[in-house]
Amino acid sequence: MKNFFLSLHMISMCLVIGTLFLQSLSVVFRLRLKTKEERAGLRATQVRIHKFIYYPILFVTIFSGVFLAVKTQVFENGTWIYPKLGLLVILIGLGILNGVQIKKDLMPKKYAMMVHIAIFIVGAWMIYFATVKPV
Ligand code: HEM
After folding, report:
1. Cβ of residue 14 lying under 6 Å from some atom of ligand 1
2. Which residue's C-alpha comes closest to atom 25 of ligand 1?
3. Which of 20, 43, 92, 130 has CA 20 to 30 A from 82's CA?
4. How confident is the prediction along the chain (135 residues), in pLDDT tens digits per residue?
5. How many Cα atoms occupy the beta-carbon half-sphere of 80 within 13 Å?
6. Rounded Cα gap, residues 127 and 13, in angstroms
7. What CA–CA distances, in Å, run from 31 to 36, 66, 69, 111?
């Protein structure tokens, strides 16, 4: 049972970070598109991915994570989970910001790229804490 949830946790967390990585980059790409029609087409696809892929797979990651946390009693046995969950709050915040960026052209290309880079750094940092368990 634990191995099933660990495998589910691994694939879903990859999809959470992967989806946010691509969605935040496609916001930058959208700002480079020439015509209003092209931008509207990409925006419609981004909105569907955010609603029907990102949020459901985030739910699966958190659900499988909570199961693993209870099963392994991680809050009693390890402290690595706290910085990891702290970073998760930041990642979810970046996901909400990405959702707003998808709905409207919130910021110029330079700052949209910074959101993209922040998602990459926070995601990598979370995986570092979960795999290396430094603390
Ligand atoms: C996007 C969010 C998340 C990412 C990227 C993520 C990433 C990871 C990774 C890479 C591992 C594997 C570590 C390894 O065995 O080498 C892991 C394990 C684990 N995660 Fe997450 N996780 C996320 C959310 C959560 C949440 C919300 C919880 C709990 C509330 C959680 C609890 C755990 C636990 C307890 C393990 C250890 C399982 C074991 O002992 O084998 N994770 N996570």
Report:
1. no
2. 65
3. 20
4. 999 999 999 999 999 999 999 999 999 999 989 999 999 999 999 999 999 999 999 999 999 999 999 998 888 877 899 999 999 999 999 999 999 999 998 888 888 999 999 999 999 999 999 998 876
5. 16
6. 9
7. 10, 38, 41, 12
Number of Cα atoms under 13 Å in the Cβ half of residue 89: 5
The pTM of this model reads 0.92
Nearest-atom index, ligand 1, CA of 2: 41
Contact 25, 94 (CB under 8 A): no
Q: Identify the CA nearest to 123 among candidates 94, 91, 100, 96.
A: 91
Ligand 1 centroid–CA 29 distance in Å is 31
Contact 9, 68 (CB under 8 A): yes
Verify whether ligand 1 is closer than 6 Å to residue 126 (CB atom).
yes
Question: How remote is the CA of residue 84 from the centroid of ligand 1, in Å?
Answer: 8
Alpha carbon distance 31, 104 (integer Å) = 11
Q: Where do the H-state alpha helices sit in the chain?
A: 2-32, 36-49, 55-72, 74-77, 81-103, 109-132
